[in-house]
Amino acid sequence: MDRLFAMQVFTRIVDSGSFTQAAKEMNISRASATSMLKQLENSLGVRLLHRTTRKVNPTADGRFYYQRCRKILEQVTETEEILSQVAAMPRGLLRVDLPNTFSRLEVIPRLPEFCASYPDIELVLSAGDRLINLVEESVDCAVRIGKLAETSSVSRSLKPLPQVTCASHRYLSQYGIPAGLDEFKQHRCVEYRSSSSGEVEPLEFSISGELRKVHLPATLSVSNGDSYVAACEAGMGIIQIPEYHIRRQLEAGTLVEILPDIRPPSLPLSVLYSHHSHMKPALRVFIDWMVKHF
Q1: What are the Cα distances from residue 151, in Å, to 68, 78, 267, 273?
Q2: Which of 13, 34, 40, 148 has its CA 20 to 30 A from that of 257?
Q3: CA torsion angle for 154, 156, 162, 163 (degrees, to 10)?
Q4: Listing from the earlier edge strand, what are the strands of the sheet with 189-193?
């Protein structure tokens, strides 16, 4: 049994959740994939997969072995790339995790340029706002908005994201447009509650280099950016949010920026990658591309 090839077949089965799909991707028969998995389990003395009629899932031992196989296969690929001097034309699979709305509005519309420049890179994008372990989840890099918590990953700062304070016409027609912070304190907001810590984030203003925090009464509390904007559009209160998130609404006039002279502080934007492994060429050019555009 070719142990390295068996590892590749096993990881493809886990990734696709299917013997048939894995066999197709590896250009072998389903019977060969099944036989190879059995040989691998017999050699290791453990069961690697739970098999049902609909789905194939790894066992606890299988998840552990999958993570180790992924690292080994990535190291083999990286070594082959270095030895064959393919750095001039990066290639291979690149897994990237992005904030959901930032991915949809900012990154994906620009991706055709990146893919045209690097046609041999296969991008696998996941989108979410939760904190992830890059190594455990086999992600090459992650882009995050906001102040970073302590992490074992390497981070590279990108251009901070400007924020705006805004409300809907419906809300402003009922409560009026505040001319300053004194009038602002008579208004209502939509609360944004952190999905990770559960804490409510106050509204903030940068005034002559000083940060001012304001707590307004709220009708609604949300923990998702799209819900936050939707509540504002429905007239439920004032919000503060990165400008890119509501650029179309501002241009269309469905939302209106208020107190533009004392904007909220910009939010940090960072790209993270693991320091445990060599930076493969595909990851390096993707990070450089992010720096160029953001």
Answers
A1: 21, 24, 18, 10
A2: 148
A3: 0
A4: 200-201, 189-193, 218-222
Model pTM score: 0.67
pLDDT digits (tens, 9 = 90+) for 154-193: 889 999 999 999 999 999 999 999 988 988 888 999 999 8
Q: Do 61 and 69 touch, CB atoms closer than 8 A?
A: no
Orientation angle between helical segments 19-26 and 3-16, nearest 10 degrees: 130
Work out the burial of residue 71: count CB atoms within 10 Å of its CB; fewer than 13 is exposed, 13-18 middle, 19 or more buried: middle
- Beta bridge partners, 271, equal 143, 156
171 close to 219: Cβ distance less than 8 angstroms: no
187 backbone dihedrals φ, ψ, rounded to 5°? -100, 180
Q: Which residues contact 281 (CB under 8 A, 6 or more apart)?
A: 81, 86, 87, 90, 91
Tokens of 208: 């002559």
Separation of alpha carbons 176 and 205, rounded Å: 20
**Taking the CB of residue 70, how many other CB atoms lie within 10 A of it?**
18
